[in-house]
Amino acid sequence: MLRAVRLAAALLLACLGLVATTSAPASAACTCRQGQLEQQVSRADVVFLGTVDRVQQQGDGHAYEITASRTYQGTPERTTEVVSAGGRNACGLGALDVGDSFVFLATGTAAPYEADSCGGTSVANPATVERVEALLGEGTSIEPPPPPTAELTRVEDSPPAGFARTAAPGAAAAIIGLLGLVVVRRLARR
Description:
Blueprint: H1 2-22, H2 37-43, E1 46-58, E2 61-73, E3 79-84, E4 101-106, E5 113-114, E6 122-123, H3 126-136, E7 140-141, H4 163-189
Parallel strand pairs: 3-5
Antiparallel strand pairs: 1-2, 1-4, 2-3, 2-7, 4-6
């Protein structure tokens, strides 16, 4: 009896171990250590505050369209892109929620920038923004481009065309239509 209980307990532990190892999320395989914010900032090429506008699956990873509102380091455009690798060991950001604001610590010299969960990208809560501003200053606002201005261009200095010149094309179309109608009626009578 004691042997049967031990065997059942061993089987139960083996099954629980199997379930725990096979149901672990892909992010659990990420082995990087998140360093101090100072280290993450020193490794980043760009640090900016932005809102996620669109998330698109890209292979195992994701691509994000971002509207940047403030930059602390680097010069991202107002509308920029960030990509994050996926896969078992990539430590990607995953599917970020559209409309949420994040502080992006990314690498690269131009969009699309690269970011991962080890680099320090995180939700833009007041504490995170305060810590970034303590290191890098208050940053610079990224304003949207100004709307285009209307410009009046004089086409001609001469007065507008008279009534006869303006009405001539319409009168010609009416005459052609009447002639066509006469031809159709004559052909219909035959």
